[in-house]
Amino acid sequence: MPSPLALLFSMRRPVSAYWLLLTGVLFVWAGMVGAISFMEAPLKFTAPHITVALGVGIGRVVFHALNKVELALCLLALGSAGALRVPTHVWRGLVLATVVLMLETAWLLPALDLRAEALLQGTPAPASYHHWLYIGLDAVKLLTLVVAGALTFRAALSAALAPVPGRVADGRTKAAARRHAETLEV
């Protein structure tokens, strides 16, 4: 099978900008979640002179900023998917990622904020499951976004490589192909 790049350059019809937008948004969103949730968050506590309070304060700022960007990317993804009428399996992934994002936004981030504020005030809250649940949901969201991005890319290639009515395999109209064949016969 040819490489994805070779397939992109051999397309029979132009790919809708929505396919490119949706694929890009899903992979950018996945990259941001992966980099911040699974790299930045744990690594900041290994830096010299970073106290728990300082790390928690930085984490609050970073995760609130990430959440705002995620909400914007989610809206872009849903809008693009709606314009494209994507396959059901892509919708399932988008819905799952959206539900996870809404749970984090409306419930987990506020709950974690209360715990962080108590810690910063010097009265740490008792242990809770919220942090581990947030990590687990982010892992589900990351995996969902990567799979949905791959499925979207495959659907975009299928749409681009589908035969165009009224055209021959090399992209010319049937009339142009006939004229070319007639010039070869002479």
Q: How would you explain this protein's 3D organization?
A:
The longest helix has 33 residues. This protein is elongated. The mean pLDDT is 88. The chain has one domain. It is mainly α. The protein is built from 6 helices and no strands.
Helix count, per DSSP? 6
Instruction: Give the overall shape, derived from the CA principal axes.
Output: elongated
* Average of pLDDT: 88
What is the CA-atom radius of gyration, in angstroms? 24 Å
Strand content: under 5%
Order of helices and strands: HHHHHH
Ends: how far apart? 38 Å
Number of strands: 0
Question: Structural class from helices and strands?
Answer: mainly alpha
Low-confidence stretches: none
Largest sheet: none
Please tell me the total number of domains.
1
- Fraction in helix: over 70%
Blueprint (SSEs and pairs):
Elements: H1 4-9, H2 17-44, H3 52-84, H4 88-120, H5 130-161, H6 174-185
Helix pairs in contact: 2-3, 2-5, 3-4, 4-5
